[in-house]
Design goal:
With 435 residues, the protein is α/β, with parallel strands linked by helices. The protein is built from nine helices and 21 strands. The protein is globular, with a radius of gyration of 22 Å.
Length: 435
């Protein structure tokens, strides 16, 4: 998959800059050039541009970084002004594109008839969002199959259900050719269109769709309440025809979200070895880091078919799960260059397989992060709800103190974390881990 993803733009629709009132302040120099002072109007324009940019693309991320650098020279914010900026950024996000509310078949890019998805489930007052992921492979895959499998169960939970079809029908279609970005775009647009609890978003699928639930769920665990992986596993590594490991960037990230895994021991299309190895990795991760809410359901005699009781039996196992957007401990094994925020961590340039373990001790008002090398590009994200804002905060990287004091509230921190409209993943301060 190319880093820029699909050929069809996922950028948000143009947004109008919100009116603001900040004193003119000097901005930092960029590339050795003298920068003019930023007016309140220019600050508003930069904020609106940042929200509109597509951070999936390399050019979009580069421009976002330029904007954050321009805003870095602004004075720290009071509590009241920080709240005002949050509301402005969230409002800008909310003006982006939505979806058709009508049930049935649609295209995200209507003129080109690209990006097929089906709307189902509860479309009036949804109590959650379910993304149903179909099976398939090279040249195969149909969104209606996942609709047929999961729509009834989603309706029974009063969830809105969206059933996307992969953009290109490959063996790993859910992470090839921009489909992963397409799925996230559907989630964002659904959140703009309906009043949906962000803590009740689920992924589920069968066969290749189970692979998609494992993999997208691991990559974006901070956005999910839970996943259902039916007869599909994360990508295995083989040696001598045997499964010896599982692809990085999935299992460690599931520490704070739920997954139910279903497998029949006589499945000839997706043999159980890969899921068994993935479950072994979950067990090892739980012993190492704590957490990890998972259930492995293996049966005999079902082949590649649904579980006993049908797909509704899988939904029943996970229907009451709720996302924890601010866990005290998290593990992030990076895989995507454009996934720069994970819960309350930020990385300017994520690197494949980089493993980060972070924990907050609220009693001591400390954050401790274990990571490779010097932590360049990594930041801890905080606000007065995550930590005790009335006391001095200490931050450690690999047991070395890198910060002690009161974190400054900044427009840059609020903008970078609030641009996706997720209020519980919006933070007021960013503390770099490199000294």
């Amino acid at each position: 998959m190319t880093e820029t993803g699909a050929h069809w733009s996922l950028s948000r629709l143009p947004l109008l800059a919100a009116a603001g009132a900040l004193a003119t302040v000097p901005s930092p120099r960029l590339a050795g050039e003298r920068q003019e002072a930023l007016s309140a109007r220019e600050i508003d324009r930069l904020v609106a541009e940042y929200v509109e940019l597509d951070g999936v693309t390399e050019t979009g991320r580069e421009r976002q970084d330029e904007i954050l650098s321009r805003l870095a020279g602004l004075e720290p914010l009071s509590e009241g002004k920080a709240l005002a900026w949050k509301k402005e950024v969230w409002a800008l996000w909310a003006k982006g594109p939505g979806l058709e509310k009508k049930s049935g078949r649609h295209f995200l890019w209507e003129d080109e008839e690209k990006g097929l998805y089906i709307i189902g489930g509860e479309t009036k007052r949804p109590q959650g969002l379910f993304i149903g992921m179909h099976g398939g492979g090279v040249g195969e895959g149909d969104a209606w199959t996942s609709h047929g499998a999961f729509n009834g169960a989603a309706s029974g939970e009063d969830w809105l259900a969206i059933f996307p079809e992969v953009l290109v029908k490959t063996e790993r279609g859910w992470t090839d050719s921009g489909t992963e970005e397409f799925v996230l775009a559907l989630v964002d647009r659904a959140l703009r269109t309906w009043k949906i609890d962000r803590n009740k978003i689920f992924l589920g699928g069968h066969s290749m769709g189970g692979y998609g639930a494992w993999t997208l769920g691991g990559h974006h665990a901070d956005r999910m309440a839970g996943m259902i992986a039916s007869a599909g596993a994360p990508t295995p590594y083989l040696a001598g025809g045997k499964v010896v490991d599982i692809a990085e960037g999935v299992v460690p990230n599931l520490r704070n979200t739920s997954i139910v895994i279903y497998q029949s021991d006589d499945d000839a299309q997706v043999p159980p070895d890969a899921n068994r190895m993935a479950v072994q990795k979950l067990v090892e991760a739980r012993e190492r880091w704590g957490g990890f809410d998972f259930e492995y359901w293996e049966v005999s005699g079902q082949g590649h078919g649904p579980p006993p009781g049908g797909y509704g039996a899988l939904v029943e196992k996970i229907h009451d799960r709720v996302r924890d957007p601010r866990p005290r401990k998290l593990v992030w094994e990076q895989s995507l260059p454009w996934k720069r925020q994970f819960y309350w961590l930020w990385d300017d340039a994520p690197r494949p397989n980089r493993l980060i373990v972070a924990e907050i001790d609220r009693e001591k008002n400390e954050v401790r992060v274990a990571c490779p090398a010097d932590g360049t590009g990594l930041h801890v994200l905080v606000d007065g709800d995550l930590i005790d804002g009335t006391r001095e905060l200490a931050v450690f990287r690999n047991d070395q103190e890198v910060f002690r004091g009161t974190p400054a509230r900044t427009v840059a921190a609020i903008l970078s974390t609030g641009a996706n409209g997720d209020r519980e993943l919006t933070f007021e301060s960013r503390i770099p881990l490199a000294r």
